[in-house]
Design goal:
Blueprint: E1 2-9, E2 21-23, H1 26-30, E3 35-42, H2 50-63, E4 78-80, E5 86-93, H3 97-103, E6 123-130, E7 135-142, H4 148-162, E8 171-172, E9 195-203, H5 204-218, H6 224-244, E10 250-257, H7 259-262, E11 270-271, E12 275-282, H8 290-304, H9 310-325, E13 331-337, E14 355-358, E15 365-369, E16 375-383, H10 384-390, H11 394-397
Parallel strand pairs: 5-6, 8-11, 10-13, 13-15
Antiparallel strand pairs: 1-5, 2-4, 3-7, 3-14, 6-7, 9-16, 10-12, 15-16
Helix pairs in contact: 2-4, 6-8, 6-10
GO molecular function, one term: 17-O-deacetylvindoline O-acetyltransferase activity
Enzyme class: transferase
Keywords: Acyltransferase, Transferase
Amino acid sequence: MKIISQQTIKPSSPTPSDLKTHVLSLLDNYMPHAPVPFIFFYKNYNNGDINILKKSLSRCLTQYYPFAGRILSPFAGHIDCNDEGVEFLEASHDSRLDDYIRKEANHESLRELHPNVSITNMVAVQLNHFTGGGAAVAVSISHKLVDGFTMATFINQWAKVTRGGSSFKPYFLTPPTSYNNVELPKVTISHEAKHVTKSFVFPNSKINVLKEKVMNSMGITLSRVEVLTSLLFKCSVDAATTKSGLFKPSILVHPINMRNKIFKNDPEKAAGNILSSVVVKMDDSRKITLNEVVAKLRRGKMEAREIRDVQEIGEKYASMVPMLIGDPSVQVYWTTSFCWFPLYEVDFGWGRPVQVKYVIPEVNLVLMDTPDKVGIEATIRLPEEEMLILQQDKELLAFIDIKSKV
């Protein structure tokens, strides 16, 4: 890979003086200043579109003005909306697009397609050109500003403007108080063991078999994401127990989008971190059952329905932080699902992407729809020895498209 250009894209219109400071919500403050990184692969990219792409990004930044701002430190309670802009890089690759997608079984290679976001920047973009045509648009936005839904919405709005349309005006929430002086905990990740990342495709036909089995035994209705998340968590805990020979209390953290619950009007326009985390804790050393995990996950989601506003979301998360990062004797599995997000609708005028990838950071499990919507791709990051055990789990293998294992 070779970087061939770098430019700062600034908003097409200056941010009004009364919007120069964007105060972060309590939940925003707890989110790491780390990128939410997506890559969109396109076969029909036209090299002549580069200036249109930059101009449309500039126009979108006028609406998404905090994205062009700066944060003084990861623990600052606000963004300076100073219009300093977004870094836009171009890179060339000596491989063909189809070959690159096929060989990206090594998930670490995806990282080279992504721009490095500086410690103060909020957003960076990298347009990657492949030999023989085709491109990958990689976008990184700080988790301080976005959850997955906001990220997907912004990229779709940018694509819409690139095609000649107009962007709607999102609304950024203003918390009742500033959290500049709150001492927020720093999440530390253990790197004692080598971690590896693998992807597995679960066809809808097999997920439905699993759903029917669990629903019939429990007498409840479940979604694909609920049952698959529960299965993967259970099997991951089983792998860790097999590897060490000892059961370690384990926690599943599963975020849910709260926009439709909290905002009655135009929930899709609400920008920021507007999600609640359901926590499933397994602290009994006996063998975990799938039904038990499903029941606890469902109970947590029902409790989340009682949340009334964004402030309450932040307060709930703050109360969970000591349990999630303060006890080294507990293993935490961070998960997220982008199923049903309009990621494959991102069309810059080159057609829909042939592949969308989330560059998995320290999250253990990411679920996404397959490009043809006939299944779910699960990307999992675990210690290497535990991954080897997981790949041999017969309960898990029964629902995987074996040809898809990468």
